[in-house]
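Sequence design from tokenized structure. All designs in this work follow the same two-part layout: the structure record, then the generated sequence. An example of the structure record is given first.
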């Protein structure tokens, strides 16, 4: 589902910084992969490259068999809207929109009518336990409710890939665990391929495999068996 072949990303004209250094990896359809490592190890660069917000200095990145480096900006944007859901540590909800409007926004951008978009958004809100918060705005929600809203928005068009950047980073431990259990449930329902960037070992244990990055390279890989994943 996600393939990187000898991917590098360099920054700087004088002293070059190797944000990613010849990274190759493959994430199978339906797999959950955790990416861990210290700040500056290349985790965020990896996400930006996979979702097409940045371009590699060298190498090939494929999403569902499509080499995204060969796409023009409009086609790359359309690919993100159709194939990649994104969840961020800072939620990135639009403050002037209600919960149902935030969740339905990706469908509206695809040209789906407001009525149909909000019907589907309300159904997704029910799946994430927010059926009573549809008319609330983000400043009326708790941190956990905002993250549930962000997850509902990311999955509203049932993307084959979900990228999650520190989705529990701004939450207390109990709420963070609730979010991870929710992601588990939604993964099993939709068979979404999940790439989770995290500093949290407990969050990583919800995945099938863990890659550890350092200095832009994969330095360790750990595959979790079912007993480890289930705790």
């Amino acid at each position: 589902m996600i393939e990187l072949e000898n991917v590098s990303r360099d920054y700087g004209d004088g002293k070059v910084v190797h944000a990613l250094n010849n990274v190759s990896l493959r994430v199978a359809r339906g797999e959950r992969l955790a990416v861990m490592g210290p700040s500056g190890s290349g985790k965020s660069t990896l996400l930006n490259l996979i979702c097409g917000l940045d371009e590699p200095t060298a190498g090939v990145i494929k999403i569902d068999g499509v080499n995204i480096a060969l796409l023009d900006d409009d086609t790359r944007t359309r690919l993100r809207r159709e194939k990649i859901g994104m969840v961020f540590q800072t939620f990135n909800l639009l403050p002037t929109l209600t919960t149902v409007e935030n969740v339905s926004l990706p469908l509206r951008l695809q040209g789906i009518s407001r009525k149909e978009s909000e019907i589907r958004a309300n159904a997704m809100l029910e799946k994430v336990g927010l059926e009573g918060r549809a008319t609330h705005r983000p400043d009326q929600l708790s941190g956990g409710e905002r993250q549930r809203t962000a997850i509902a928005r990311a999955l509203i068009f049932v993307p084959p890939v979900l990228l999650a950047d520190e989705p529990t980073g701004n939450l207390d431990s109990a709420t963070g665990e609730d979010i991870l259990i929710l992601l588990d449930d939604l993964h099993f329902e939709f068979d979404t391929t999940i790439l989770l960037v995290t500093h949290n070992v407990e969050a990583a244990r919800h995945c099938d495999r863990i890659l550890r990055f350092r200095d832009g390279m994969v330095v360790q890989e750990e595959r979790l068996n079912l007993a480890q994943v289930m705790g």
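The two ends are 27 Å apart (CA to CA). We note this feature because it recurs in several other targets discussed in the main text.
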